[in-house]
Predict the 3D structure of the following.
Amino acid sequence: AQSVTQLDSQVPVFEEAPVELRCNYSSSVSVYLFWYVQYPNQGLQLLLKYLSGSTLVKGINGFEAEFNKSQTSFHLRKPSVHISDTAEYFCAVVYVSNFGNEKLTFGTGTRLTIIP
Amino acid sequence: NAGVMQNPRHLVRRRGQEARLRCSPMKGHSHVYWYRQLPEEGLKFMVYLQKENIIDESGMPKERFSAEFPKEGPSILRIQQVVRGDSAAYFCASSPRQGYGNTIYFGEGSWLTVV
């Protein structure tokens, strides 16, 4: 079955330190990959997405992610975090099909807490 | 350009009542998706609709849940005879056309509490 795994449910990080949030997905021929951020009691905001081309994707708020097809991973990174980055982060995958009926499959989320 | 609008933001229902959640997609978007987020879990796909058509309802519970997206007006997610397990955040998303090469945009969610 198609699935997305975010192994770390909670990640505490000191302010201005780097962070990596891990995401792995079940293998498939063709995928689109996304990272969303959710602030408390709010909807999801797209951070970045990978559709094709360069495997290093840059997004908003200084985040970037790298698509690694051999490891079926799409880890999110930021070199220096800020208090305002405290939020829940969701990795999501679209398993591209010929039927065109594509939908997002989400991981269970990683709660990033920035420590002052 | 207003984003995806959901209402109500918060809804409290007693067991056995009906819950109706509304979603107005972004202007120009004709594709709507509903997702459910249970406490401490990720989002689970429920249903994908286009105007007047249900394209994929593979994530919808077989009973009590229904969705529509009429020619005019918002998309509605309807839950009949709610139970405590229906308590969750329900998110609507929209896109201008099929295919995730186009970014889909999420609303701020409707939080349903069943007491």
The interface with chain B takes residues 4, 6, 32, 36, 41-46, 49, 51, 90, 92, 94, 96, 100-109 of chain A (CB under 8 Å). Chain A is about 0% helix and 50% strand. Chain A has a mean pLDDT of 90. Residues 36 and 46 of chain A are 5 Å apart (CA to CA).
